Amino acid sequence: MFLLSVQDALADPKWTQAMNEELEALQKNSTWDIVTMPAGKKTVGCRWVFTVKLKADGSIDRYKARLVAKGYTQRYGIDYEETFAPVAKINTVRILISLAANKDWPLHQFDVKNAFLNGNLEEEVYMDMPPGVKNLPYDTGKVCKLKKSLYGLKQSPRAWFGRFSKSMRAFGYKQSNSDHTLFIKRRQGKITALIVYVDDMVVTGDDLKEMETLQKYLSKEFEMKDLGQLKYFLGIEVARSKKGISLSQRKYVLDLLAETGMLDCNPIETPIEMNHNLAIYMDQVPTDKG
Question: pTM for the complete prediction?
Fold first, then answer.
């Protein structure tokens, strides 16, 4: 994430293009209507968040500008209600990868572009005009009445997952009771499984025809990006060979060390001072507990 002002972003062509792409996606999705601010209502603010998306090897993939609502200004019972949305369990992911390795199933990965924008809002939410955007009626008492969920809103994860799970059930998939982010379909003695984590999903199984049909169906329902064979998911790098599937969290650990300023530290076997004595006082006599 970059701490970049809107003025600085507008002066840089790559960030300006990223902002335009985000606005086009919002308009294409009919995210809001521009209306006159109703009496007695309050708006939710918004801001731009700029991020450089990286590939699994750490190289730059693309520049991303995202319009985010200031959800911390929302009020419970007025512009949001329930917020809970399930997330994929790491044990479920490991089981699916294990099955794929043992049964030689393919592991295919998809990404939903602007996933949260697909959720339908049930609450009445008004938002300020996006900053730094031309051709919008500023200073005229106009605001954005949100029709779809937006990143930053408290109810956005729930609204998106509700929309996605409804689409999966409509296509004949059953939702797992042990992990609600896992969807399974059995057809003619074969099985297809899909697990989703926010906007990333992995599909596996022995029914190749169903997997292809599912991809076409989801592409009609949402704007999808085909990421090909599974390589990176939930901070785990996945490498497949004839010998099996190997998992690594090297990139995740390096990112964690960089974030905490410990990337240049020397590795040690145990993360504690050598010959360190645990005592309340410096001159305390050790007690033999044996």
Answer: 0.76
